[in-house]
Design goal:
globular, 10 helices, eight-stranded mixed beta sheet
C-alpha cells in the first residue's frame, strides 16, 4: 500500500524541534523526502547551531527515510533561496513547502522595542513570504502543481496579550495565505494554513499552557493535519485556515455581519450608536 506522500519532496522550516520536527518525522514516515531546515536558534531567535536539524535528519534516516539538513535563515531572501537549493541539489525537485519556522519575543506594546517587533515579523511574515515565493516560482517551472502550508496562530486571528509583534505577523500570514491561494490556483498549487496550539519548547512556560501536558496538547496532533493538507487528499482545498488544538480540528474564517443599510444619505455618529446592535448582529 503506497504511503500518503510517497515520492514527494517536502521543505519544512523550523524542523529541528517542536511542531516542525514532528512534521518532518511524520512526513518522512509517509514516504516524503524532507529538507529539514533549522537555524538552531533559541526561542527568541538568538544563537545558531546545526545540532537540531542534524538530529532530526539522523532520526529520519535511522527510521529508513531520506532527509537533508539546511541551516539557512528564513528571514532573508538569500536564506529562502538556499533552502530551496538544498531541495533541488539533493532531490532534484520540490513538491511541498511547510512554513513553520518562528520565534517569540513577547512584550506589551508600550514596552516593545523596534528590534523585538521587527525580528518577529522578519522571521514569521517575511520568512513565510520569501520561502513561499521561492518555492512557488520553482513549482511554476516544474509545472505539476504543489502544496504550500503556512502557519498562523490564534494570536493573529483573535489577538493575545503581550504578542503585538507575533499577532501582527501571524495575522499577516493569514492574509498572505488567502492571497496566495487565489494567485497560485491557476498553477495547480494549493495554499492553506494551520493555526496550531501545542505544548513545545516555545510555549511550555507560557501562562496559557500551565498544567497542560504534551500528551494532551502536543505536536503529534498537528503533523497529521499538515500531512493531509500537503497530500492529494486535499487537492480540492485551498485558502483554508485549519485550527488544531489536541484532538479538536476546526476551521477559522473571517465573518461579516448582515449589517444595516441607511435609507438615504450619510450615517451620523449618533445613528451608528443607536443602530449598533443591528449593525453588529
Amino acid at each position: 500500500m503506497a504511503k500518503l506522500l510517497e515520492g514527494k519532496v517536502a521543505i519544512i522550516t523550523g524542523a529541528g524541534g517542536g511542531i516542525g520536527r514532528e512534521h518532518a518525522l511524520y512526513f518522512a514516515a509517509e514516504g516524503a523526502k524532507v529538507v529539514v531546515n533549522d537555524l538552531g536558534s533559541d526561542r527568541s531567535g538568538g544563537g545558531k547551531g546545526a545540532e537540531m536539524a542534524d538530529k532530526t535528519v539522523a532520526d529520519i534516516k535511522a527510521a529508513g527515510g531520506d532527509a537533508v539538513a539546511n541551516y539557512d535563515s528564513v528571514a532573508t531572501r538569500e536564506g529562502a533561496d538556499g533552502i530551496l537549493w538544498s531541495a533541488l541539489a539533493k532531490f532534484g525537485r520540490v513538491d511541498i513547502l511547510i512554513n513553520n519556522a518562528g520565534i517569540l519575543r513577547d512584550k506589551t506594546l508600550v514596552n516593545m522595542s523596534d528590534g523585538d517587533f521587527n525580528l518577529v515579523l522578519d522571521v514569521h511574515l517575511k520568512g513565510t513570504f520569501y520561502c513561499l515565493q521561492a518555492v512557488a516560482r520553482q513549482l511554476k517551472v516544474q509545472g505539476h502543481g504543489g502544496r504550500i502550508v503556512n502557519t498562523t496562530s490564534l494570536s493573529g486571528l483573535l489577538g493575545n496579550f503581550g504578542q503585538g509583534n507575533y499577532g501582527a505577523a501571524k495575522g499577516g500570514i493569514y492574509s498572505l495565505t488567502r492571497v496566495a491561494a487565489i494567485e497560485l490556483a491557476k498553477m495547480g498549487v494549493t495554499v492553506n494554513a494551520i493555526a496550531p496550539v501545542a505544548v513545545t519548547r516555545m510555549t511550555a512556560d507560557l501562562p496559557m499552557m500551565k498544567g497542560i501536558k504534551a500528551e494532551d496538547l502536543g505536536p503529534q496532533y498537528i503533523a497529521p493535519v499538515a500531512a493531509f493538507l500537503a497530500s492529494d487528499l486535499a487537492a480540492d482545498l485551498t485558502g483554508q485556515v485549519v485550527g488544531v488544538q489536541g484532538p479538536k480540528v476546526f476551521l477559522s474564517r473571517m465573518v461579516e455581519t448582515d449589517g444595516a443599510t441607511r435609507s438615504g444619505g450619510v450615517w451620523s455618529p449618533q445613528e451608528l450608536k443607536e443602530r449598533w446592535a443591528e449593525i453588529s448582529k
